[in-house]
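Per reviewer request, we include the raw input and output of the structure prediction for the construct analysed in the revised manuscript.
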Amino acid sequence: MPITTERGMAVVTGASTGIGFEFARWAAQDGYDLIIAADEAAIHEAAASLKGLGVSVEAVEVALLNREGVDLLVQSIEASGSSVDLLMINAGISVEEGFLDQEFPEARKIVDNIIVGTVYLVQQVGKMMRSRGQGRILLTGVMPGSSQALYSGTNAFISSFASDLREELKDNGITVTCLMPFPPEVESFQRADPPSKSVGQTEMDYAAGVARFGYGAMMNGEGDIVAR
């Protein structure tokens, strides 16, 4: 079933900074109202900036590490009364140490953020999309081997998950795109300073370019894509 072009709502995670913020900006420029989420107060600064594009923006400050965090975001989606047309998950997390040097709670946080939170959120919003017979999902990973072991490994899961989910949903009017940014510095760009602050122009240009590439691919219904 073809996806309609009527503008509705986009949900974007990791949207306070970098690539996630740029995803939200592209959606707003296309006329989508927004629910944006991140685990830091900067998400409210991002929302204030995006409101200047003439759309409705709700900011949800929440860590999407478990069912409780995702449930809070889903409650905001349901309370909005709008249908989700676009789900863009940008589960970036800063990694400073090698796997064997990490304390296990920190290692577990990477797994929970990139895998547990993503899978549960996709399942909850995916059911909403399936009931309507339309929707677009964009998941962001990294190129395999382009980061540290655990971060790269969890993102490899995202790539495989997206591929199989795409096949599973192909007859339900839902497309699944997996964006794999390159080079390896992508995680630092995902966690760059908020748009209201001064950051290196190269980082901002990179985030904007990757987001534009990924957003366009999602809107075209493409599958696995690599952004340089």
